[in-house]
Fold each of these.
Amino acid sequence: MASRRNGTLYTGVTGDLIRRVFEHRTGAVRGFTRRYGVTRLVWWTSIEDALAAIQREKTIKKWPRRWKIALIEQDNPEWQDLWLSITR
């Protein structure tokens, strides 16, 4: 998730992507994303195994910022908000 193109980034893991993105978008939960206005879904992936998903999240969180940006721009070079694509 991001606040805007090249803005503040947030990496997380969830079992319910639509619910979690909605919470970020509406500021329903206090914390980092609400404080920094991180409301745009700019990249996501599906990993069926919960432990593997958590490990992937931890790995990405340790990456340098430029790697995270490259990951986003590989699939979403314009940093489009993908919210509508997951709710259709």
Amino acid sequence: MRRCYLTAYDIREPKRLRKVHKLMKGYGEAWQYSIFFCVLKDIDRVRMQSDLKELINQDEDQVLIIDLGQDETVARNAATVIGLQLPPQETGVLVI
């Protein structure tokens, strides 16, 4: 079963920041530079958390993972955007 998560981070060092951003692109959609919307199986959430723990400095950095529940439509609609809209949702369909 998949659940939706909003993951936000505050990384103090630019090199670590780039590494965390690159890692997070593999787990979800960037809604802002340091905020990702992720739809993950339980094992993938555990992997993401473990990968993040390895990259960050836990004395200087912070990662926030918010569980938005199972219903992706409800989770997406829970976000209110003021100003520039979120990027379009990726469909997961690749056309060659």
